[in-house]
Design goal:
With about 150 residues, the chain is mainly α. It is built from six helices and two strands. A two-stranded antiparallel sheet has the order 1-2. The chain starts with 6 loop residues before the first helix and ends with a helix.
């Protein structure tokens, strides 16, 4: 027996996913602004990446997040002015500058991370563990497919 045409269901599901991801992104930006006024969602994301990687070049940040180099440059400059990021010359190649969180940047990042975990924990507290694991897997799968673009 042939499977029924599910095109309308697929289109509807994709529309719902797009709408809900957009809503999620808006809420994430608003939450980031409330947690630390100097640390936008983009700044938090860049600072977090620098911390996780032990530093990297601005061009690596641009490539990682598919951002224009000028956007990364503006964000990094703002983080530097706020005293949250510093530059270090790469010992093996003095032409290369690596961006790193300052101690103040690492401290703010740690505070915001704790707050974010608490917010997500509260929002997802009633979800069964199986649903959390499925949702986490779906998000990883979605993001992995986006990296291939």
């Amino acid at each position: 027996m042939a499977e029924p045409d599910r095109t309308a269901d697929r289109v509807s599901a994709v529309e719902t996913i797009q709408r809900e991801l957009t809503s999620f992104a808006r809420r994430a930006r608003a939450t980031a602004a409330r947690m630390h006024p100097e640390l936008s969602l983009v700044s938090f994301t860049l600072l977090s990446h620098l911390d996780e990687r032990g530093g990297c070049r601005a061009t690596d940040l641009a490539a990682q997040f598919a951002l224009d180099k000028s956007t990364v440059s503006r964000q990094v400059a703002a983080l530097e002015r706020a005293g949250l990021v510093m530059r270090r010359v790469e010992p093996d190649d003095h032409r290369v500058q690596v961006l790193l969180p300052t101690p103040a940047g690492a401290e703010i990042l740690a505070q915001v991370t704790v707050s974010r975990r608490q917010i997500f924990g509260e929002r997802l507290a009633e979800w069964p563990v199986e649903d959390l694991m499925r949702f986490a897997g779906y998000l990883e799968r979605y993001n992995e497919s986006a990296r291939e673009d």
